[in-house]
Amino acid sequence: MIEKNESVERLLQVGIALSSVEDLDTLLDLILREAQELMGCDGASIFLVEKNKLVFKAMRSGTYFRMWGEEKTKATFKTFEMALTKNSIAGYVALTASALNISDVSQIPGAEQYRFDPAFDEKYGYKTVSLLVTPIKNKKNEVIGVLEMINAIENGKVTRFSGEDKEIAESFSSQAGVAILNTSLTEQLREANFDTIFRLSVAAEYRDKETSNHIKRVSYYARMIADKLRYCTEDCSLIFWAAPMHDIGKLGIPDSILQKPGPLDPEERKIMEKHSVIGAKVLKDSKVPVIQKSKVIALTHHEKYDGTGYPMKLKGLAIPAEGRLVALADVFDALTSKRVYKAQMPEEQAIKIMKEGSGSHFDPEMLDCFLGSLDEVREIRDKFEDKPEDFDKLKDTGNEDLGELLK
Ligand code: C2E
Ligand code: SIN
Ligand code: SIN
Ligand code: FE
Ligand code: FE
Fewer CB within 10 A of the end CB, N or C, for the chain? Predict the structure, then answer.
């Protein structure tokens, strides 16, 4: 065990190291390595909570690695699922969300709900004595996994974990939790990028002719409101990445309607309103959370708070929060931007229209949040302003350098 001051410094270093890992398996292995070193213990393993299961994800063990080498050990202790119940030690910690410091697993009082499962020890001849088991939580304090540290070692002998070990392990676990969630999101986004490219090529049968500034502004406005509403960082990021696809269904609307310079007649309007459902269909059935959120946003960003929107006439809080959020960001941006069918409107006029929509079109709480942050709104608008040359890029000159596009 290292000294207390040293361990605080060490925790800081570990936090920085963990935050730089991009791949989940590498991260879990690093967490286990650091846990072994911080606690001075023989082994460590990680379980993650997935639905109603506890999934054994990774382990490291001084004893097994010496005996069999790292590769054979990891091949032997492959991933497995177990029921999430208070009968197992890991399950108990996950469900109670508090750490257990067990000095000797053979002395667990019969009155406790959890029992040590000796199956692995018996099979491979290892002897587990002390266990320090901590919950890994997200920022909402929900348990996302469990870290088990096995057999504290002092002067070459197995001993118990101290109270101070427990404190350090708890701090370390919260760092590990943040790192695991960040890494999962990074992996998810990488996957989402591929997913999006794939979906866009399918959607290419459909199409559009705008700059990316509108969708960028909408994303930034939506994240700003989410942040002001104190959504956790993960939710703010999810909304930010999901919002850009809110109008993807416009790819299914004919140019004659989408690019019509004037107002739509009722028949055209009916077709135009299909863009929310088309978008949701393009995005449906993805297992990637960002895309799932995009689908909900595409479907619900034209619902209105008083139930007069489309396509489902959802009302109030029955409209998913992300749909209400993007509705607000989208309309404000549409009002303050030039469109083929209308001129840009001055900010005061746009704000007046937004205020008139409080409780009828918009969620009043979200609107207040937005209107209370106009400095930031302006900053975002200036940063992603539409410039004439941006539109020139979209013009078909007939002699483009296609090699340029390939780069
Ligand atoms: P968009 O241009 O991105 O507009 C998004 C939403 O902003 C509109 O949803 C509407 O709620 C709001 N909005 C836009 N301009 C104004 C305005 O001048 N006054 C007010 N009070 N609200 C405004 P909406 O109406 O469901 O329209 C969805 C999409 O349909 C629009 O997206 C646009 O692509 C198209 N669209 C709507 N009206 C027309 C039109 O008159 N002509 C053409 N060509 N397209 C239209
Ligand atoms: C348990 O936590 O009871 C199962 C894993 C282990 O034996 O350490
Ligand atoms: C949320 O759903 O995240 C916030 C509460 C709400 O506005 O529905
Ligand atoms: Fe839309
Ligand atoms: Fe839009």
Answer: C
Report the 10 Å Cβ neighbour count for 63: 17
Distance from residue 334's CA to the centre of ligand 5 (Å): 7
- Is residue 308 helix, strand or coil? coil
Class of domain 4-183: alpha beta
What amino acid occupies position 366?
Answer: M
The atom of ligand 3 lying closest to the CA of 363 is 7
Pick the CATH number of 208-395 from 2.40.50.140, 1.20.58.220, 3.40.50.1360, 1.10.3210.10: 1.10.3210.10
What global pTM score does this model have? 0.62
What is the residue extent of each domain of the chain?
Answer: 4-183, 208-395
Q: Say how far apart CA 69 and CA 64 lie, in whole Å.
A: 7
Distance 151 CA to ligand 2 centre (A): 13
Q: How far apart are CA 243 and CA 237, in angstroms?
A: 10
For the stretch 352-373, pLDDT in tens is 999 999 999 999 999 999 999 9
318 Cβ closer than 6 Å to some ligand 3 atom: no
Q: Which helix (H) or strand (E) holds 357?
A: none
| Pocket of ligand 2 contains residue 105 by CB under 6 Å | no
Q: Is 321 in the pocket of ligand 3 (CB under 6 A)?
A: yes
The pair phi, psi for residue 337, each rounded to 5°, is -120, 155
Residue 329 Cα to ligand 5 midpoint, Å, equals 9
pLDDT tens-digit map of 78-135: 999 999 999 999 999 999 999 999 999 999 999 999 999 999 999 999 999 999 999 9
pLDDT digits (tens, 9 = 90+) for 71-90: 999 999 999 999 999 999 99
